[in-house]
Amino acid sequence: MRAELPQAALEALPAGRGVLCAVSGGRDSMVLLHLLLHNGFAVTAAHFHHGIRGAAADRDAAFVRQICGAWGVPLVMDRGDAPALARREGLSLEEAARRLRYDFLEVALERTGCAFLVTGHHLADQAETILFNLARGAGMDGLRGMPLRRGRLLRPLLRVPPEALDAYAAAHQIPFVEDETNQDLAFARNRIRRQVLPALEQIDPRALEAIARTGALLAEESGYLDRAAEAALPPVTRTETGLTLPLAAFRAMDPVLRRRAVRLLLERLPAGRRDITAAHIRAAADLLPGKAIDLPGGVRVSARRGVLRLDRCPPAGERTALRVPGETAWGPLRLICSGPAGDYAAAPWSPKDRLDGRTVKRILRDTGTPDHLRSQCPVLFLDGKPIAVCGPFGCVRGRRCPPAFRVSIQTEKGEKER
Questions:
Q1: Among 42, 107, 117, 179, which is 20 to 30 Å from 331 by CA?
Q2: Domains in the chain, ordered, with CATH?
């Protein structure tokens, strides 16, 4: 008997073209892989090892490799280090793993030439996502949940309840592996899945459908607000680091459309809207003239001199010992130093830092350094004392700076600034 996908997914998937299926080895992705194969799609599987679960993750990778070989499915695999990314960027382990996985899947999609990427998210995942976003204080965008389709990403099982997947897996004797971390209540999503959703289903057995239905309704209304905000936006200018628009015209917009406009503007930045909550959006939309705020993802919003700016700021470096002579990585910059030996270091500026009696903040202001670039201006130290401040203006040297000391800053574009 021909296995069937939800009709919306069948219409979206391209007949006769390749589909990349994200396969973890768990029930959901194995059911999806089986469905695709038995509905005549040309499927390539993609598996990512997050570097988290040790031997268990190695087992999952070996299982996926063995099944794909037995079923005649081409397979692409890769691995990363989610714990290292989480430490480096201050992310949760879940978020770091998700970022690495989707980065891999995007690359795999291009490498294989497949038309679509499909994942095994189902109805319970949708309800879980909506509740998770609600608990984090998300606005309408977060409460609409995951779309069935976003670009080339498709979620064919999004309207399918988990009980139907259990029944299909049993009926077709589909093998799969269990991820033991799905039982770990230390993860917020697991607590929602294991505790919150069952409690809601005791109130209403169709709670999953009700939550997903609410998300779909909010998605429709969100689309309407997007169109209204886009029409009301004043002219937007793209700069090297972000976007600018007239502040007075922006503040004249209806508050609801202002908040929606901030969301649309963030989508145009490389940082996107990841980790940005409704509270962040409201703060940016209500920003008063002369003020600035920093948003997650390295975005700075400022309202100065009649202009609203949204800038993508690469992360600054931490306090780092400098090689003198030699080259040292500091955040997105490389500091190339020469001079007499000593205990040199570079660090982000702080309000207490002074150079020859002047605060570093005043030096940055006096040199005309824009707000969104100030976090990228390292203060250089010798024996624990500030000796110079570096930035797009060059370097301001203090009296303690040895005359023979020299530093060049190499940006990501390869330019050097003295």
A1: 107
A2: 7-211 (3.40.50.620), 233-312 (3.30.465.60), 320-417 (no CATH)
